[in-house]
Amino acid sequence: MNPRVFLVLALLFFAGGIFIWQQGWFSAEEAEEKTFDQILSPSPFLEELDSEEPEQEDPRADLQAEPRGMGVAQLSEPPTFFVKPYLVYPADMLMYPAYEAAVTEYLMELQQWYLGQVGAAFQMASLVVLRHPSRNYLEMRCGENPSQECIRDRSLLEGNWAQYMNEAIHGGVARYESGGPHWADHTAYLVFGAGGGGYAGANAKGHEGGWAVVGDWVLEPISGVANEWGIPCSYSSGWQCEDGVSKGTPAHELGHAFGLPHPGEEYRDSTIMEWHGGYPEVGFLDQEREFLRVSPFFVL
Ligand SMILES: [Zn+2]
Prior knowledge:
Blueprint: H1 3-23, H2 28-31, E1 47-49, H3 61-65, E2 82-89, H4 97-118, E3 121-122, E4 128-131, H5 137-142, H6 148-152, H7 161-169, E5 176-177, E6 180-181, E7 187-193, E8 200-204, E9 210-214, H8 216-223, H9 243-257, H10 286-293, E10 298-299
Helix pairs in contact: 4-8, 8-9
The protein binds zinc ion.
């Protein structure tokens, strides 16, 4: 083949591969059918979290194992790890423009807070605002077969909220496996789900990626706008929507998405990972800081 034609074809193939990889149409990791273990709590206002310690693998191990032969050097560059923030609405409900502005501002604050606490910044994509393409709010709040009690009591959140957030982000296609929703590797999803009330949940797989989901009791305090069709702070006990707790919730859940567990009750006053109400004064334990500094999500 003419070398020039070959070069053009090779460049087109490479560019196409990068595009598809960025769009997430294909991911080798997803094809491997890895699952996140997830414990689902029936209570909407309690945090959902795997009680098991996340695997703590060497984040560089995979990268070092990649082939580095001629012609594939560019394709085997280390994968980029990003925090990807989303603001998700049900299919049938009005959006609050104030939420987008407040989340955007809060995310900058959060990134700065992590930088100050860890000495390194995580890489973050732009906020994406979207609706679930098919599920309405009643279905998301109460599940596919809503109980009469849930229909009547708008403070109840009985649907599989994390799964619906996962679906919304993936174009409405159910992407979950037996262990729970499946989320792409190399990504820490930080999802603000309007209508999610006091929901707070997270999980991770070592340093490889994870997800964090919060709801109305974060959105209302950071924006000053109550979700009239959702589960506003008037349904909380009050303390959940106080500044330190509401702003500390995504900080804490994102820590889980990065792979940090709860260290134990004795560290309640020492780390955001045990009690999120101490935000922004409280930070991380030394070992947590070190965990984050070697995480591929962070750039020193
Ligand atoms: Zn937690």
